[in-house]
Amino acid sequence: MPTPAKGPRLGGGAAHERLMLANLSAALFEHKRITTTVTKAKRLKPYAERLVTFAKRGDLASRRRVLGLISNKGIVHELFTDIAQAVENRDGGYTRITKIGNRKGDNAPMAVIELVLEPVSAKQAVVAEATSAAKRGADKNEAAAAPAAEEAPEAEVVETEAAAAPEAEAEAATEEAPAAEEAATEEAPAAKKAAKAPAAKKKDEDEAK
């Protein structure tokens, strides 16, 4: 017989263990608390809480999955309506184990496993509300930071263009300066030649007389 993953197996085999856990879960959901050995209670706790999680989903697939384990339709209906509604605001820990001492006769350690159907305390509700508010505030800050991050590159581009404008003007002025000097150099001989022309004409007229 193969060894189970978690501790010794309950009952004679794997099928027997599954049936025992299913029957214990059905009794727990029907009576809300049962007395059993500590070993069975510890093995029943994750099994029953998983079924409660299916009940909180409330869809048809989950209901059929639970019906495959618990054949009593009345208990399954109570699980999906009353128990699931009672633990709607609870995120986990649907069962509680309380040790009550050893059993007379074989001295086996006994425990009471019960469903935690009490509403979530006010302190826990306040903590949950504060956590959700902090999460909403963080999401809001991230959403506000995203447009600012998009505008930052645009501002950098504008600043870069503004900084590049004086440099371009200085380069243009530097290029225009030699051209102006060349033009002035070319105009100077022409002006000298134009100034000499009337003097030469007057000299020719005097010689002609």
Structural descriptors:
5 helices, 3 strands, 209 residues, single chain, rod-shaped, mainly alpha, 50s Ribosomal Protein L17, Chain: A
Could you state the oligomeric state of the chains shown? single chain
CATH superfamily of one domain: Ribosomal protein L17
| Distance N to C terminus | 149 Å
CATH class category of one domain: Alpha Beta
Helices and strands, in order, run as HEHHHEEH
Radius of gyration, taken over Cα atoms and rounded to an integer in Å: 47 Å
Low-confidence stretches: none
Structure notes:
- The longest helix has 87 residues, at 122-208.
- Helix 1 (14-31) crosses helix 2 and helix 2 packs antiparallel against helix 3.
- The protein has a 3-stranded antiparallel β-sheet with strand order 1-3-2.
- It has helices spanning 14-31, 38-57, 60-67, 73-86, 122-208, and strands spanning 33-37, 95-102, 109-115.
- The chain contains 5 helices and 3 strands.
- With 209 residues, the chain is mainly alpha-helical.
Quick take:
The chain has 209 residues and is mainly α.
Give the topology.
Blueprint: H1 14-31, E1 33-37, H2 38-57, H3 60-67, H4 73-86, E2 95-102, E3 109-115, H5 122-208
Antiparallel strand pairs: 1-3, 2-3
Helix pairs in contact: 1-2, 2-3, 2-4
